[in-house]
Structure formats: C-alpha cells, structure tokens
C-alpha cells in the first residue's frame, strides 16, 4: 500500500494548521493551598463502604493522590463547578487521581491540569462516574495529559453525565474492560472525544462529542493483555464538528486521526452504529478500517487485525463543505482519491486472504439519512487501484 502526498497537499497542511487555540478555565473564590495534604489524608483514612466528602473550593495539589484496595468508597464533591482539584503545579506522579479498588463511585467534582492522566482507574470491578469533569486549562497542547477519564482493565463501568476537555489522547477512554456504559456525557476539544479500545460488551449513547479531532472511536489494538474486543453499540449520540487540529504527540495511536473525523472503527468487531447525528465533518463521517491500514507491526499471535460484523444504519450524516484534512495520511488519501470532497462513509476494503465474496467481512450500511451519499470502498490493499462507490454489496443490516 503506497502513499505519496503532493507538494500542494503539504502546503495546504501548513495553512490549515494555523487554528486558534481556545482554552478552558477553572476558578473558585475559596482556594485551599495545601490541597494534597487535605485530600490524601481523607483517602488514607477511608474505610470500606465509606463516603468521602470534599467541600467546595479549589484545591491546589502538587502530586498524585490515590486510593488503593479499599472497596465500596464514594468520593463526592459539591459539584463539578464547586469542587475543583487543580494539579496545575503538580511536580510528581503520573496521574491526578489514581484508584485501584472495587465498587467505586466518583461524583461532583473537577480534575484540572493533571501532569498525566486526570483520573485513572485500574483493575476495578464496579466503577460509577457521575457529574465529574476533567480538563486542561492551557489549551490544546501535546504536553497535556493523555486521558481525561481512564478506566483500564476494569469491569462494570458506568460513565454518566461527565465532561472531558483538552486531553492529548482521548477525553473519555475505556480500555481493556468488560461491560461498559458511557452515556449523557460531553467530550470536546480533545484529540479523540470518546474512545472504546479493546473492550467487550460496550454501549455508548446519548452523548455529545464535538470540536474534537475525531468524535467517537472504537479501536482494537495489538500487544495488549486483552485483545480482540467486540460487541459495541453506538447510538443516539450527537457527533458534531470534530475538525480540531490533531495535537497528539507523534507515536501515539490517535496521532493518525485526521481532523474532520466523525466515527472511526479500527479493527473493530461486532459494532452497531445507529440513530446518531454525524454532522459537519470536513474529512469523513464514518471510517471503517483494518489495523493493516496503519502499516504498523505487531507481535501478538492472538491478534485479529480485521474489522468485521459492522452494522451502520439510520444515522443522519451531513458533511461539511470544506477541503478535507491534508495533515494526516487518511486525510491525504481522501484528497487524492476525491479531490476537495469530504466523504460520508469510507471503507478500506482490506480483506482476509482467500475471501472472494462481495462482502466477506459482513459490513452492512443501510437506511442512513444523507443527501447523495458519498461512499467508497477504497481498495487500500491494492494501492487504491479499484475504488468502488457502489453500496449494493453492503445493503444489509
């Protein structure tokens, strides 16, 4: 699979990279200077099944705070605009708040400007996050923490009515987890708004993902403890105007995402995408691709790099009238194959060897609401030699 951008596209990339850098802000009239000592003492003193109440105020915290091994703890603030944990002066630790315990509830506070991930929960069974916000207040910078919400290797995760902004990887991320719900939440000004990665049995619904680089991602990546995630439903979401410049550090997987991407399914299996509003994207509304498209190697013999058993139906898709992205490989491909024309649904067409039927990967695209749909199987495995715009092989549900 060969790809060579032209000098014209490189020049366009420079021009389009000049975007204003908006910022978030957090403040409170009550400031607690010794925030680390106050909150970490509460966490150390916590007992199983207890509730930790953090009063309103802006708590200045200079190192990671953590809760380890104590089950059934609820951490409650006075509201996400009233209780603010500010890590702007953090000098040590890889996260803001780190939790390794079961049956955890977080409710009603903001974590701002963590040196690394804002809230990391690992190896937890039973996680409920409600009315919590994560953000970085210095704008869209590659030095921001990677993840806002970061449950990993967890079970029974619920993220409800939360907000995530300015993460340099994903605002709301759930990885290598089972039984996941993300609902009623707002992800904006991140590289990836909401990302489900290597998870089994997930539902993402009634969320708003806007002003990110990519709105909603379902990825399955190699060389992780849990591989070949599957069974994910994405529905009733508003995925709008995700055209933000990609500010991820090079080498991160999300650094490949072209600005102007609504939904991307990468090596995803058994995914249903329906009843969503996917609006105002300059590159593509929905991208369907195997891991082979990245041209990255992997070692894990268990890993299945293909995308299959996908159903995309009853979505409203409206593309932006704009030049597709030219800063990333996928966007450059769109421009070369469809000059100046954003696409609604793109499929890389990469198949297992020996599959000769019209739709061997069971990709179904039907009953979407879109004006003169722009769809293509780009035949990426054969250097885009046989781009096919017919939806007929995919007329199933």
UniProtKB/TrEMBL annotation:
Transmembrane segments: none annotated. It holds the Pfam family Beta_helix. Residues 96-243 form the Right handed beta helix domain. This is Right handed beta helix domain-containing protein. It comes from Portibacter lacus.
